[in-house]
Automatic annotation (TrEMBL):
It is found in: Membrane. PANTHER family: CELL DIVISION PROTEIN DIVIB (PTHR37820), CELL DIVISION PROTEIN FTSQ (PTHR37820:SF1). Its main location: membrane. It comes from the Bacteria. Keywords: Cell cycle, Cell division, Cell membrane, Membrane, Transmembrane, Transmembrane helix. Residues 22-90 form the POTRA domain. This is FtsQ-type POTRA domain-containing protein.
Length: 212
């Protein structure tokens, strides 16, 4: 009896592997806004009519994630005949200017597009913006660690070195941040400090802040 059950199970698996009944008839793409569905489908490279069990969903997800604007993707089999692709796009944390144009960069320091920045995205000014640049990474850590009410006021974050990070607000006032060290404490200090009159707020040493 057990042997017959095993044989039957093997037969069902084999049938599912090869039968056109459980094959791809529809591919749905969700979550994408800036990446066209046609681009996702082309990169996905899954042919209709292919048995669902033969679809390598992990490899397909990696292909979709290779699109520059895509942070990551999930590909699922939905029986009896659908492949569902969920796309999570990169979100711009900053932009920086080059002779080629304005680059968008996400919070992980990945530059992924050359196009105008959305409203509210601050400018990054460092010598060598990029994932391998410690100055870039530290500047982004400072920015993303800020509480939303403070981050919403940032117009530019600039750094000449990892110990010389400066934040310019939309109204022109400046926060001298210093290094990424004690960023959480500096963020807590910055908001109430900005309630005082001044143009330059030095919080590089949170134990000895100055306002000019």
């Amino acid at each position: 009896m057990i042997a017959l059950s095993v044989i039957a199970l093997v037969g069902l698996v084999a049938a599912a592997w090869f039968t056109p009944v459980l094959s791809v008839r529809k591919v749905s793409v969700v979550g994408n806004v800036g990446v066209p569905s046609d681009e996702v489908l082309t990169t996905l490279a899954i042919q209709t009519g292919k048995p669902l069990l033969q679809v390598d969903v992990d490899a397909a997800a990696r292909r979709v994630a290779s699109i520059p604007k895509v942070d990551h993707a999930r590909v699922e089999r939905r029986y009896p005949s659908t492949v569902r692709v969920t796309v999570v796009e990169r979100a711009p944390a900053v932009f920086y200017d080059t002779p080629e144009g304005t680059h968008l960069m996400d919070a992980g320091a990945v530059a992924y597009a050359i196009e105008p920045p959305p409203p509210g995205v601050p400018r990054l000014k460092v010598e060598r913006p990029g994932l391998e640049d410690p100055v870039t990474v530290d500047a982004l850590e400072v920015l993303t660690s800020m509480p939303p009410p403070l981050r919403a006021q940032v117009g530019e974050i600039a750094a000449g070195s990892i110990s010389d990070i400066r934040v310019t607000l939309l109204d022109g006032r400046q926060l001298v941040w210093g290094s990424v060290e004690n960023t959480e404490r500096k963020s807590a200090i910055a908001l109430p400090l900005l309630g005082q009159p001044g143009k330059v707020y030095d919080i590089s040493s949170p134990d000895l802040v100055t306002v000019k």
